[in-house]
Design a protein that fits this description.
The protein is built from seven helices and twelve strands. By secondary structure, it is of the alpha/beta class. Helix 3 runs parallel beside helix 4 and helix 5 crosses helix 6. The longest helix has 14 residues. The two termini are 25 Å apart. Bound molecules: S-adenosylmethionine.
């Protein structure tokens, strides 16, 4: 990946990351992707993992519970996009509650969370975060340039990004510009001819969230990692990172996105089964 510094150069004094895997019945083949001491992916259901060190920032872009798999055919995505694990619509309220509670539990008292949501299940998301104890600081709209064509309703071309904190008197906020508004216009990435996971976020979007709500050296956690966008941004901006992804089939996509082959000769990469 051109333009990457090595993670160890970006954060030389990184503390090791510790976590516990609570259960191990979901997948026969469980594994970790270890990039270095401070950047790891755990392939598991986030509900099976607890962190020993609480996060400074959680970034979560969960499935939207709208039967996304069905949409993949419409989008003409490559077959490996099917590796995206969706949550059935009827299970969504429980899923999003589990996620909100997990995030609250695994966040520092002065930590922040960015939570991405579509509009369809937003009511469940808002109830879940309020009930978990989060305070809503901002409700950012991400406007993207392309939505799926609709005949009898407006084309959806935005997502919601909730900025949540535990303590409204104590949280990090590195204001991006003097007059920072809550509508962000950022283009979606196109990966021509490249096999991608479903619904990858633009690096720029994730970078804006991470740089606003954390500092270099902080621990950022993404419990629904997908293709590894959060991990990539953390490597580029000197944050430590743990990603959790239920689908081990995404390992190849994550490695490609991080450009891991470039680091292979150094002291940085290790894969263990
Ligand atoms: C919307 S995608 C994340 C996309 C990501 N932000 C990116 O840029 O690539 C949501 C991810 O959550 C994963 N997922 C679904 N249920 C999960 C669970 N219980 N634990 C961990 N990951 C889960 C899905 O497999 C999917 O990869």
């Amino acid at each position: 990946m051109v333009g990457f510094d090595s993670p160890s150069n970006l954060y030389k004094k990184g503390r090791k990351l510790n976590y516990r895997v609570l259960h191990s019945h979901n997948f026969k083949e469980k594994h970790l992707l270890i990039i270095d001491d401070t950047h790891k992916v755990i392939f598991d259901d986030f509900r099976n993992v607890e962190l020993d060190e609480k996060a400074d920032l959680i970034f979560a872009d969960p499935p939207f519970g709208i039967n996304f798999k069905g949409n993949l055919e419409t989008y003409h995505r490559m077959p490996d996009a099917l590796s995206y694990v969706e949550v059935p619509r009827e299970e969504y309220p429980k899923f999003i509650r589990d996620l909100a509670e997990w995030c609250y539990r695994n966040l520092k008292p002065n930590g922040s969370m960015w939570l991405v949501s579509g509009w369809n299940n937003l009511r469940h998301v808002l109830n879940a975060v309020e009930d978990a104890g989060f305070k809503q600081l901002n409700h950012v709209i991400w406007k993207y340039q392309f939505g799926v064509f609709t005949r009898r309703k407006f084309v959806t071309s935005h997502y919601h990004l909730l900025l949540l904190v535990k303590d409204e008197e104590d949280y990090k906020f590195n204001k991006p510009e003097h007059y920072s508004e809550d509508v962000w216009i950022i283009k979606r990435p196109y990966h021509h001819g490249e096999q991608t996971a479903g619904n990858e976020l633009p690096d720029k979007l994730v970078e804006k969230c991470i740089e606003t709500s954390s500092n270099p050296g902080d621990l950022v956690v993404d419990p629904v990692l997908g293709s590894g966008t959060t991990l990539k941004v953390c490597l580029q901006t000197g944050r430590r990172c743990i990603g959790i992804e239920i689908n081990p089939g995404l390992e190849e996509r994550i490695k490609k996105k991080l450009g891991l082959n470039l680091f292979r000769s150094g002291n940085i990469i290790g894969l263990c089964g």
